[in-house]
Amino acid sequence: MNVLVVNAGSSSLKYQLLNTDTREVFAKGNCERIGIDGSFIGHEENGVKDKLEVELPDHRTAIKHVFDILKTVDAPIEGIGHRVVQGGWYFPESAVVTDETLGWVREVAPLAPLHNYAEADVIEICREMFPELGNVIVPDTAFHYNMPEKAWRYAIPRDVVDKYHVRKYGAHGTSHRFIWRTVHEMMGDKTHKLVSCHLGSGASLCAIEDGKCMDTTMGLTPLDGLIMGTRCGTVDPATVFYLNRVAGMSIDDIDTMMNKQSGLLAVSAKSSDSRDIEEGANSGDANCQMAMDMFYYRTSQLFAEMAASMEGVDTMAFTAGIGENSVTMRAGVAERLKWMGVEIDPELNKIRSDEPRVISTPDSAITVLVVPTNEELMIALDVEELLGK
Ligand code: AMP
């Protein structure tokens, strides 16, 4: 089945057209600066990258351009999969778009206002413009929906939890689900308790036992948990009250600071990109070295937390930008987990490949893999399953 996967943000729209049987990607791209001056579409087809300077006043125009561009591709679109950041209290799994399910995406949007409203608008536009095509909602939270209550519940009053739906929703669920699937294909019955480590500019860990999410490090929103590119991860919640009362920062200022000015960027005082930070540390920059040390420290700490939530762990999988590519960061995290019996083979760790692979020694108590994630393929496979071929 040829599926168009759409990932809409407030001012961007990523797309990919792929086939679920052959897994061939026919074309992909990103509409950038929607509603802002200087908009363009970065399009890639047959390995050739193109920059199309077009006016994109709104998402409707962007979608129209994407369909026009894709008309020349010899793979008629048979279904559309929409990544939705927040499925809230409605989506334990992906769902076909109906008036009702689309309404749910809007209803839970206050939990992820920068994403869900744009995603809902794009879904509506696709239904209107191409009524012959089925659309599927793939929420990034769905995989975490059924984690045990002791993992998702916050210890705050029950009436607040119930009225405002305050709980751990997690994120990166589509990636963690893909990682479980791939690891299970490779390892079969040797893997029962997996910690999936999605380490990119956003980062989260997920404890997965026999395919079920048992816990994850992101919370009500993707701000919680690990230290990320520009997000602080877990801090004492009272930091917010303190900064508001004592430093006179508004809630919006603190939101911006914690989401966009913190994390690796803040500690390194240099960059949010781990490549720049590694380079800085190599040339003796102490702030960059601290950013890396803190990244290893928190990642290994939360790895142990995920293992504790399953009362054990047999497999660890690194994925996403840092997890797939940074030999140094993988080694740094693994080094701090030696006490748990993690032992990676430095030569295997150095190998660069697009294929999933084991990088631990045969004696390692925990099998360690590098598994390239593929959220678009996971979304397309859900579309195929829900809409049929
Ligand atoms: P993602 O959000 O999954 O696209 O990951 C983005 C992050 O991955 C960037 O901030 C980089 O820090 C990191 N990254 C990407 N490529 C490499 C690489 N070749 N070596 C080290 N880090 C990388």
From TrEMBL:
Site (Transition state stabilizer): residue numbering on this chain: H172, R231
Subcellular location: Cytoplasm
Pathway(s) the chain acts in: Metabolic intermediate biosynthesis; acetyl-CoA biosynthesis; acetyl-CoA from acetate: step 1/2
Residues at which ATP binds: K14, H198, L199, G200, S201, G202, D273, S274, R275, G321, I322, G323, E324, N325
GO cellular component: cytoplasm
Keyword Cytoplasm in record: yes
GO biological process: acetate metabolic process; acetyl-CoA biosynthetic process
Protein name: Acetate kinase
Gene expressing this chain: ackA
